[in-house]
Design a protein that fits this description.
Number of helices: 7
Number of domains: 1
Strand content: under 5%
Number of strands: 0
Radius of gyration: 15 Å
Distance between the termini: 42 Å
Structural class: mainly alpha
């Protein structure tokens, strides 16, 4: 089970790439978000739910095995965060790029209240703060789309 948890928590070992694992996880989540979006809203939502629930399990198991509450190499949370963004806006090339950049900035800075949520124990805290960063990113992009005509 630990091998499976590690594989999933690190998003097929992408989180083990040198330097910037969260950015790598986010970059490699972009094609997944685009592909799932093409399948429709229900498959997208189901995939998001599976990534989130399995991510909670995998990140808990893996983080406990390495003795670190939030290991850098766990990037399934970035995948869930990127998927969250595209509940709000269509993943056009521009939105994919802006979503990636803005999500990473928000995820790194963790503006209030995001930082509070990463303190939730087990895998939930690992996942929830990135999902909230995805919500904030999605709302900003939706606002830019509606009020500035960016799409």
């Amino acid at each position: 089970m630990l091998k499976l948890a590690k594989c999933f928590a690190t998003y097929c070992y992408i989180g083990l790439l040198p330097k910037m694992p969260g950015t790598w996880g986010s970059i490699f989540a972009i094609p997944l978000a685009w592909a799932l979006y093409q399948l429709g809203k229900i498959p997208y939502a189901v995939a998001f739910l599976l990534v989130t629930l399995l991510g909670i399990w995998a990140s808990k198991v893996y983080s406990e095995s390495v003795g670190n509450e939030d290991p850098d190499e766990v990037v399934i949370d970035e995948v869930a965060g990127i998927l969250t963004v595209f509940f709000f806006v269509k993943p056009t090339p521009l939105m994919l790029l802006l979503g990636l950049i803005l999500f990473r900035v928000i995820d790194i800075l963790k503006p209030p209240p995001i930082g509070l949520f990463e303190k939730i124990p087990h895998g939930v805290g690992i996942m929830v703060d990135d999902i909230l960063a995805g919500v904030i990113t999605g709302l900003i992009l939706l606002s830019a789309e509606k009020f500035l005509g960016i799409s």
